[in-house]
Design brief:
This protein is mostly helical and about 130 residues long. The protein has one domain. It is about 55% helix and about 5% strand. The protein contains 7 helices and 2 strands. The radius of gyration is 15 Å and the shape is globular.
Length: about 130
């Protein structure tokens, strides 16, 4: 997949993140006859090793599911979908989320609980991505 066909956030991300997404997408496209499902699978694979920070994907300190939806597998994920965290590593410790929030210059972060931090990071990520697309 040429870089121009990659989602813009991946175009600004490390080569390893791009390869992970491309390989997972190619495999899912062979497995499923549904483009949107293949993209969900590819993002799911990406989110096991990378998290969205601002307008790009960065390697996570530890591999693993990033939210309750990615922790599910197979038919459970399709039949009983859970809210996703939009690429934020919601399963990371609060200290890690505070560090990400600091890098994104989120005010009031030290008074936020873990759920509020995840929401604030998601919002900041969307804002940074929108700015980068202009």
């Amino acid at each position: 997949m040429p870089a121009r066909n990659l989602p813009s956030t991946l175009q600004r991300s490390p080569a390893k993140a791009q390869r992970t997404y491309k390989k997972a997408l190619a495999s899912a496209e062979r497995e499923y006859d549904d483009e949107s499902r293949a993209q969900r699978v590819a993002y799911g694979a990406l989110k096991h090793s990378f998290e969205k920070v601002g307008d790009r994907w960065e390697r996570k300190p530890e591999k693993g599911p990033s939210d309750k939806q990615s922790a599910q597998s197979g038919s459970a994920a399709r039949l009983r979908p859970k809210a996703t965290a939009g690429g934020v590593d919601a399963e990371a410790p609060r200290s890690h989320l505070l560090d990400v929030a600091k890098r994104l210059d989120i005010s009031g972060r030290t008074r936020m609980n873990k759920g509020e931090l995840v929401d604030a990071i998601q919002k900041a990520n969307r804002r940074k991505t929108a700015q980068a697309r202009r």
